[in-house]
Amino acid sequence: ANVAVSYCKLIITNYYSVSERALQFISNLTAVFPFSKYVTEEGQRVVGGVLIGTGLWIAVTFVMRNVLKYLLSWHGWMFNRHDLVVSWSTALWSATAPWPWPSTVLRSVTAPWPWPSTVPQSATVPWPRSSTGPQSATTPRPWSSIVSDWWEEYIYLRGRGPIMVNSNYYAMDFLYVIPTTRQAARAGNSIHAIMMYRRKLDRAQIKPLMVLNTIPMCSSQYERMFNTSRVPGVETDVLQHMNESKHIAVYYKGHFYKVWMFYDGRLLLPREIEQQIERILADKSEPQPGEELLAALTAGDRVPWAKARSQFFSRGKNKQSLDAVEKAAFFVSLDDTEQRYDPENPVQSLDSYGKSLLHGKCHDRWFDKSFNLIVFKNGTMGLNAEHSWADAPVVGHLWEHVLSSDPVRLGYTEDGHCKGNPHPNLPGPQRLQWDIPEECQAVISSSLKVAKALADDVDMHIIPFNNFGKGLIKKCKTSPDGFIQIALQLAHFRDKGKFCLTYEASMTRLFREGRTETVRTCTTQTCDFVRAMMNDKATREEKLKLLKVAAEKHQDLYRLAMTGDGIDRHLFCLYLVSKYLGEDSAFLKEVLSEPWRLSTSQTPLQQLDLFDLKRHPEFVTSGGGFGPVADDGYGVSYIILGEDLINFHISSKHSSPETDSHRFGSNIRKAMLDILDLFQLDNKANNK
């Protein structure tokens, strides 16, 4: 007890000693202020305390913010091999990175990572969208990706050809199940789920994706997910984004509708949205002249659409109706065809499904909207997304939320309707009115002709590869993505008898406003492995050794791309700067003119906690895909689902004598199986 009393006395004595020194310091500080003679001594202490406290708070916040920034900007952890001892630098970083920093500080530095110092200073150019052109080739843009604005402008918005097939991409529904066959009900649940996602987005309730549960990825692309439309121009398009939109635009059998999503101050419930969709499906009136094919303008070349928009849609009811479409939260297409995976006819059913989502009838999707929700007559659904505003993983994040909400959280009644009751006083959808003259209808017909020729040329093939999946690949101690990419190289060589420049998209969202970087997967190491596989004299051990070298090289390239040390975006910036400076570079012309005859992308499943595929394997998604990049090349998208399924989406053009999507699909299947055989997993299991 005596010890405790003595300890308390010591604490109290020290407290008053420190307090007196602090008060004396504040008094001395405030005494030099010019207003000190007008304020009492007590008032001076209050003012001084506030100033010192505020300064200390700012200093601590600044230090914490910058320490956190630089810790999360360090990417050395990504280059550690899983089978080696962790380096001291990574161990130190991992010990300091995951601490519980204040949430306000973490939000303030969610994505301000600097672009690497390897970027040439001449590439730090200002915004390229100025009508007068760049003002200075050395304007710095610190703490941000210097590529994103130029990438959006010159790769997407300045393209004058059709964005349908060439740019837009699609996402598919569940592979094996349809929660309800009622078109209106499926639309009701999915539209409600999308609007709930928008509400979370507006309220900043969607957590940023985290690498290793520690490193936040930039979320800037989510900003234009809703209320956004691509507006055509003669020289370049622009993205029109509204801060708020309370309606959606719906298309059904040649009719356009404006459907309010709020009534009596609240968001419509799923059954109420179903009620509105049922009213649209019951409309048997004839389309107005030119209305049925109007959306073909968004599917054809951009210049005719831009001129027609300026000439025919700049005033009157045409402008009002076009505004209702372009300023909608998103676009809904109620398709009058039936699409789904048919186990009795898997190839044709999936190919037809993919083509319908990619281009439809060329006049029943508004390809300029940030995304189209497409609901088919039998209840199957999907998305078609415009590419300039964001990349596929961002749309995929939304789609995962919708698919996980639809059959489980929202659900349906026994007869297939949305849960709940219709609203007795809900005003119906508003039919949009158009006055489209014959001159404009001629432009629409011309755009439709261009779009149909492009759509008919698409050779689409979708493969649910279920021979094995991520589970067995991991037993090979190989990266699943590296395994698949090397298989694609082997398949392509067998398909065409030659190698080609290959594009694999990698996210650069470790940087502020980061978009993508290219992983050039056709490496010397991969070519050596493919040649060995084509050589009957090469032993299994030699092939396996070359495979591991190729896989490790691929992983290194992927890490470099993610951390900003890829080469293609740097070359892209140098090319733009050279054009601005009027300097011709034979090297840049040569390296940037070669086509990507094999363009690939993995669609990641980002929210694994939303899908319990072990207990509900029937709820696997189909992934998504895109059109071919080169006229004589292939586009390949793939998604790794659970432990035992990989879906491939292959596209090419019928007009090319060199390509055949179904033939390439067979070669992919054979390449995957042949590479797996090198590891002799069955023999190892038997030996055990």
Kindly report the CATH topology of the largest domain: Chloramphenicol Acetyltransferase
Q: What's the structural domain tally?
A: 3
- Approximate helicity band: 40-55%
Look at the structure and give the CATH class of the largest domain: Alpha Beta
Strand content: 5-15%
Instruction: Write down how many β-strands occur, each being a DSSP E stretch of 2 or more residues.
Output: 20
| Alpha-beta content class | alpha+beta
State the helix count: 20
Rg is: 29 Å
Shape-level CATH architecture of the largest domain: 2-Layer Sandwich
Q: Tell me about the largest β-sheet.
A: 8 strands, mixed
Net shape: globular
N→C terminal distance:
67 Å
Characterization of the model:
This protein has helices spanning 2-30, 41-73, 88-96, 103-108, 148-157, 183-202, 270-281, 302-312, 316-326, 346-358, 392-410, 438-456, 470-475, 480-496, 524-533, 540-562, 568-581, 586-593, 661-677, 681-687; strands at residues 169-172, 210-211, 215-216, 228-231, 238-241, 247-252, 255-260, 262-263, 266-267, 331-334, 371-375, 381-385, 430-431, 458-465, 502-507, 516-520, 598-602, 624-626, 634-641, 645-653. The protein is an alpha+beta fold and 688 residues long. It folds into three domains: 2-108, no CATH class; 166-211 and 244-456, Choline/Carnitine o-acyltransferase, domain 2 (Chloramphenicol Acetyltransferase); 459-563 and 595-687, Chloramphenicol acetyltransferase-like domain (Chloramphenicol Acetyltransferase, 2-Layer Sandwich). The strands form five sheets. It has an eight-stranded mixed β-sheet, sandwiched between helices. A six-stranded mixed β-sheet has the order 14-20-19-17-15-16. Strands 2-3 form a two-stranded antiparallel sheet. Helix 6 packs across helix 11, helix 14 (480-496) packs across helix 15 and helix 15 (524-533) runs antiparallel to helix 16. The longest helix is centred in the N-terminal third of the chain and has 33 residues, at 41-73. The N and C termini lie far apart (67 Å). Residues 9-18 and 98-144 have low confidence and may be disordered. It is found in: Mitochondrion outer membrane.
